[in-house]
Amino acid sequence: MRGKLVVLDGIDGSGKSTQFELLRERLGAEERRFRYVRFPRYSENSSLFVREYLSGALGGDADDVSPYIASAFYAHDRVCAFDGGLRQYIEDGGLLLCDRYTTSNAILQGAKLEGSARFEFADWLFDYEYRRLGLPEPDRVILLNMPARLAVGLIAARAERTDIHERAGFLARAEKCGLEMAKRYGWRVIDCADGDAVRSREEIADGIYRAIFGASGQ
After folding, report:
1. CATH code of the domain containing 181
2. Per-position b or e across 111-132, b if 16+ CB within 10 A of its CB
3. Helix or strand or coil: residue 168?
4. Residue 109 phi, psi dihedral angles, 5° rounding
5. Which of 97, 95, 58, 54 is nearest to 74 (CA)?
6. What is the bridge-based pairing of β-strands 197-198 and 193-194?
7. Domain total of the chain
8. Average pLDDT in the 39-67 region?
């Protein structure tokens, strides 16, 4: 019996890493069988072109690189991961949690486009990865909706070097694109802020857990 692929996604600064760790801790405490992976896998050779792209080596602005070309960089890393054992794990009935997936390309690369071109790209992307490359389609996509105006401050607070996707103007476009994609493709949206106040990480975590397992936790 095939298992389940659950994706946690959102713009940079939306708290994905924190929520991913909280979810892992909770599932571990409940002794649930699961595996997890973060995309892109920066420590793997398969992410070389992703790293070059994000560093600005292929263009100092995200818009300098076609969304179709950039998406191929990320897809290569995912194919290598699934051919390395993740595909078999799902086919054997396992629960796989992904921090980012093909859906991130829909959000971040789609943000480079406007109007109908945005959805034409997303339709191409999902066909390319799920059907032509044979990557598994997610059973559930959970979008952490963090307003870009708040995400900018959260990113700055990390005091880390930023990449070309973490600039304020691009984040705002990605925020809008993510909500459009969620509406079109039926993703579950978890609001991470109430006005200008970021919701507690525990409240957000409970929303994510219920989105995956339902109110009963089954």
Report:
1. 3.40.50.300
2. bbbeeeebbebbeebbebbeee
3. helix
4. -80, -35
5. 54
6. antiparallel
7. 1
8. 95
